[in-house]
Specification:
The chain is of the alpha+beta class and 189 residues long. It folds into two domains: 37 residues; 144 residues, Double Stranded RNA Binding Domain (2-Layer Sandwich), CATH 3.30.160. Helices cover 40% and strands 22% of the residues. The chain has a five-stranded mixed sheet with strand order 1-5-4-3-2, covered by helices on one side. The N and C termini lie far apart (70 Å).
């Protein structure tokens, strides 16, 4: 092997080593100071059963909404979104009035006549398993989802989306309770 080949190999090895060291430093700095991992939900035990997300949009309104609820200054506004392409199974299992009662019983504070109210707007969405746009089989595994929005003066400050696996009134009740637990947890922390 000639001297020139040996010298070029030493230089090549040096630059390879330097590149590895620089890359390692960059990765360590990114891991330590890079963007934080976004939380998907409040990590409550009830949120670990099925896919659940929650999000705070406005911390100040969250605290105000919680205070209003504690005073009984809240209203519940619910609805159904039925499947477009398939048969609806939920209409025989639960009514909006029953779901409203599940919310009211979990809150356990009588409503009071107040000028300013916190609104709990929710929709029970039945999974449309026959929708031709749903190609992935995982989209067809759950029976539906509960989407709940908490609002003050029409402005959303907290939202929870959670799936339920069966067309069952008791499972929906548990999802409603979990939604309110997440709301209270975030308002108190």
């Amino acid at each position: 092997m000639s001297i020139q080949t040996r010298q070029s190999q030493i230089v090549n090895n040096f630059f390879t080593f330097a590149s590895i060291v620089i890359l390692s430093i960059v990765l360590m700095l990114y891991a330590k100071y890079g963007p934080e991992e976004k939380r998907v939900n409040s990590n409550l035990e009830c949120q670990k059963i099925t896919f659940t997300t929650d999000k705070i949009f406005n911390e100040k309104n969250l605290l105000q909404g919680y205070a209003l609820m504690e005073q009984g200054a809240y209203e519940i506004n619910g609805g159904f979104i039925k499947p477009r392409f398939g048969k609806s199974y939920l209409k025989d299992k639960i009514s909006i009035e029953e779901a409203d009662l599940f919310f009211s019983h979990k809150i356990a504070i009588p409503k009071a006549e107040k000028e300013k109210l916190m609104t709990i707007k929710y929709e029970i969405v039945e999974n449309d398993k026959n929708d031709p746009r749903k190609k992935d089989e995982s989209c067809k595994l759950h029976a539906g989802s509960l989407m709940t929005s908490f609002r003050v003066s029409g402005k959303e400050f907290f939202r929870v989306h959670t799936d339920f696996l069966q067309y069952d009134k008791n499972e929906i009740k548990k999802k409603i309770e979990c939604t309110l637990d997440a709301f209270k947890y975030n308002a108190k922390k």
